[in-house]
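Case study B.
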Amino acid sequence: MRFGIERVFRRIIPLHGERCPSFDRRPGAVGDNGDTLSLTGTKFGCGVGVCGACTVLENGKAIRSCQIAARDANGRSFTTIEGLSPDASHPCQRAWLAEDVAQCGFCQPGMIMTACGLLREHSEPTDEMIDTVMSDSVCRCGTYPRMRKAIKRAAAEMRAKKP
Ligand code: FES
Ligand code: FES
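Model:
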């Protein structure tokens, strides 16, 4: 049986490098735990690994948290959108704002984490790479063209910052 990140959060696991408290509240939606941990970014969408709304990073790799069994999460460390930076200053977050990507916003935390995973693997992704990776996640508002621009902007900033 698989559990979403909301149940993973109920375990004592490292999140953003710190150990999360354990929870005795009833299982609920991501927002339930988001409220508890003040981590409201990660969204619970399809729950079956298709939409990408629940995407977080593990060792820099984008993963779909709804597909992690709680029993498999013990001892692993995950980063949610809140862990990217304390002040939305991560190049992807800055690029997202600069390109005015978000519309309703629901998918965007997962999209940004997906983009971070892509940029970790490819410092200068092509349009085709971006479209292939990002179209694997669902944005009902159709912000894909702006996401592509934002990823290219973030990639350029990240490359410029490299020594
Ligand atoms: S909620 Fe995890 S992929 Fe949709
Ligand atoms: S911005 Fe609305 S679903 Fe992506």
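Residues 144-161 form the longest helix (18 residues). The remaining cases will be described in the next quarterly update.
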